[in-house]
Each structure stands twice: as structure tokens, then as C-alpha cells.
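Deliverable D4.2, example record:
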Amino acid sequence: AIVTAVERVAPAVVTVQTETIEQRPVDPFDYFFGRRPQEQRRAGIGSGFIVRDDGVIVTNAHVVAGATSVSVAMRDGTTYSARVVGADEPNDLAVLKIEARGLPTAPVGNSDSLLVGEWVVAIGNPYGFVPGNVEPSVSAGVLSATGRNLVGGNDGGASVDMLQTDAAINPGNSGGPLINAEGQVIGVNSSIYTPSGGSVGLGFAIPINRARRVAEDLLTNGRVRRPWVGITLRTPATNNPRELLTAGVVVRAVVPGSPAARGGLQPGDVLLRAGARTLRNPYDWEAALLDLRPGQDVVVQLRRGSGAQTATLRVADLPEVT
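Output generated by the structure prediction step:
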């Protein structure tokens, strides 16, 4: 099953090569002799996969961040110059475009119907060209968990609603596909948690359903439409991680005239569910927002005082700050 699954997807996996130009600092004393900062070129590498046969490729935003040039290498070594159609750093996703036709594409699955414990396979280019060619490599494991909120990872940030796997993911795998045993992409490999720098079996991928929505927005608008309902949450007064994860979702303020205000939400309300998602902490609420699109209705279950209520909110676009 794994061999067959890999055969379906591997032809669509690519190596993403980047170049970044940085200004190399000069010792202040050297300015007296007319020396100026010099440009220093840095090469980067990651993975991606083709989702449209006319050269549309999905990868991670951090793979192409700050790049002055991007190129894509196919598994046979053919290299194309690539254009960044758009990137969305909060979701760590980017869409690239190369000028080619009739390319192999990766079949896309459904990340909402996954089962913890099912076989998964990570495909990509760990450590770039160290193995000696651009043929993607494969690692297998299981789906360890879904809906993971990774808080305070190796980069110190937070990633919400992630897929977790013990399939080996290493530097260079970023942007490559995580696939199921049927050869369908279910996630975009994004990060690892590790004290050593190498894989310790804690890899994380962005669910493909979210990646697909972000890619559609980037292709259509060049940016991602941010969902907004107009509430701010009460920050839990604790540094205990265990207490934080069960602190609840308490509304601190409601923006006048916002979808939340029109839906009847009030400060002090405790949000219990958003659609089919149970809310236990603010990270769960952030994950719920990622599933929503402007113009969509979401039913929220809440507790007000000792009573339970429901409210229907019409999701709006995040207002632009001027």
C-alpha cells in the first residue's frame, strides 16, 4: 500500500530552491578606509508539490520568505524559474507558479475524515542535496494526532489545528506532502518539535483542507481573506501550561456593530463550541477561525451565567487597520 501510494504522489513532489541576498556587516573601523557592506548570497531549500498541471505548486511560506529568487527542480532534474503568487505567513503556506504544462499533479484528500493511527507517508527532500540528487525521499509512520495546538515550539511561536505524525520529517521536508495510504495528500509538512535539531518523531503538517482554501485565496486574490467576528478573549492569568489548555474561552469584549454583537454575544460569555469543534482554550478558538470563511454562518454554543445558549454569527472580513 505504501509503495502504491508513493507512486501516485512522488512524481508531483518538487525541490524548492531559493536564494537570499543579505548585506554582510562591515567593522565600523573599516569605514575609515572606504569599505562598505557587501552582498552575501545564501541558498535555501525546501519541498513542494504540484496541484495543477499548468505549474501551480504549494509549499511553506517560510521556505520562500525573503527570497530574491526561487526555482523549482523536478525529480528528473529539470529546473524552472518560479514566481511567488502569494504567501500567507500565519498559515505558513505559499503558492508558486512555473511556466510549464502537462505536469503530474498530486491527488488531494480530505483532512476532515482522518483517523488517528492510520498510516501516513511524508515525501520531500530532507537536508536538500546532501543525499546527492533531487529524487524525493520517503518516510512512513502513523497519524499521531489531529487538531494539535503547538505552543512554544522550536521557533517560540504557536501553530494551531495541526496534524501530528511520527513519520520522520527533517529540515528540507518543509512544504512537501503528507499522504495517506491511498496516495492522497492530507497535509503540508511544516515543522518539527525537537531538542536535537533532527527528527524525534514529533512532526507537524498543515491540514490539506485549510491549505486548499488558502491556495484558492492566494490564486484568486493574491492574499488570504481573514475571518472576523469581532470579539477579544480574556487572557488566562496563569503560566501553568496545563491550566492554560483548560482555561476555557471567555469573551472579554465585543466590538460594537460586529458579527458577534449582531449575534448577541456579551462580555463574560464562555464559548463552548463553534460548529462541530469543542472549545477548551483560546487556541481552540483560533483553530476554529481557520476553518471559517467570510460570508459563512457559524453556530456558537455558549454558557452565560448558569444557562446554555446558541448564537449564529455571520463571519466577516477582518477590518483593515489604517
